[in-house]
Write a structure and sequence with these properties.
The structure is a single chain. Strand 7 and strand 8 form a beta hairpin. By secondary structure, the chain is α/β, with parallel strands linked by helices. Helix 3 packs parallel to helix 5, helix 4 packs across helix 5 and helix 5 runs parallel beside helix 7. The N and C termini lie far apart (48 Å). The strands form three sheets. It has a seven-stranded parallel beta sheet with strand order 3-2-1-4-5-6-10, with helices on both faces. A three-stranded mixed beta sheet has the order 7-8-12, with helices on one face. A two-stranded antiparallel sheet has the order 9-11. It is built from 14 helices and twelve strands. 45% of the residues lie in helices and 18% in strands.
């Protein structure tokens, strides 16, 4: 009999990737958790044979009910979304709200008796790693919940795989503040970002596929993944390296321009501040393998190199949206 996984954020980027890959593989029954079962995304999942269940990350009881239904799920993919609250609440309140949701999610998972595996989408602790020099609001609440799980739910911690997700290349298409800009009258482009061009940038490649591939591998190999950290990453490049790849794909000349944090915030407001804080942390602490988490690699999870889509092939697939 197939096991069942509950996927939060099932109509979003990360959860949607998990649903897509697990559907393709056919080894798991999927229970998509969403606030609105009548949304277009939820209905599209239902048409693919996915069980769609209503629950809200702000309501722990609704999560418990969703996880426990029909005998209970054997796995949960947990993800929270800081960005959807940033503009409305501001960074501090959005961070607190995300942390509250993540705690409710972990608590509900801990109370699910049938649970065998919890895959938690998290990020490194910028405050701990930097000794307080850096604090990135969209990264910190996730990492603090890692410790909360270990302290408050030790049995859940043993069943948890903590999964970091590196930089999203699709933001070059979807986020205005990350798009390349044409220099009027020149036919050339600039990429204006608040970081040194030589700074390290870890890429997750095509997250619509790669996150799901990682989660499928994590679930398939609990003997090595339980209680461990991993990172969805296809390559390590630099900001200047992204420009080179972008130019290769588009055929357009482009240059990297390092913006000050102050100027970037003037242009892009709270989103600009959030990105610049992340990038400044990355300038000082670029090697995630040195954070002491003994990250499981794709190879250790038995993910074949050809199973992941890296930066260049991903940009090729979205070429029309890069200009």
């Amino acid at each position: 009999m197939s096991k069942t996984i509950a996927v939060t954020g099932a109509t979003g980027g990360q959860g949607g990737s998990v649903v897509k890959i697990l559907l393709q593989q056919g080894d798991w029954k999927i229970r998509a958790i969403t606030r609105n079962v009548e949304s277009r995304g939820a209905k599209a999942l239902a048409q693919q044979g996915v069980e769609v269940v209503a629950a809200d990350l702000d309501d722990e009881n609704s999560l418990i009910k969703a996880f426990d239904a029909s005998g209970g799920v054997q796995a949960v993919f947990g993800v929270t979304n800081f960005w959807e609250q940033l503009y409305q609440l501001g960074a501090e309140a959005a961070s607190k709200h995300e942390q509250d949701q993540a705690i409710k999610l972990a608590s509900a998972a801990a109370k699910t008796k049938s649970l065998e595996h919890y895959v938690w989408s998290t990020l490194p602790s910028t405050k701990t790693i930097s000794g307080g020099k850096h604090f990135v609001p969209h990264m910190e609440p996730k990492s603090q919940v890692d410790q909360y799980i270990r302290d408050k739910f030790p049995e859940l911690a043993k069943k948890t795989t903590f999964m970091w997700v590196a930089w999203y290349p699709q933001n070059l298409v979807k986020m205005p503040l990350l798009k390349f800009m044409e220099v009027p009258g020149s036919g050339k482009y600039i990429w204006l970002q608040p970081s040194k061009g030589s700074a390290v940038l870890h890429s997750s490649g095509d997250i619509s596929k790669n996150i799901g591939v990682f989660v499928a591998a994590i679930l398939a190999h609990p003997e090595i993944s339980l209680g461990r950290y991993t990172c969805v990453k296809t390559e390590t490049t630099t900001f200047e390296g992204v420009v080179e790849t972008w130019s290769k794909i588009t055929g357009k000349d482009a240059a990297y321009v390092d913006s000050s944090q102050e100027s970037f915030v003037k242009l892009w407001g709270p989103y600009g501040l959030e990105m610049s804080q992340q990038y400044k942390f990355g300038e000082d602490y670029g090697d995630w393998d040195k954070f002491g988490m003994n990250l499981l690699t794709a190879a250790q999870l038995h993910i074949a190199e050809g199973d992941l889509v890296g930066l260049e092939p991903y940009l090729e697939s979205v070429k029309a949206g890069l200009l």
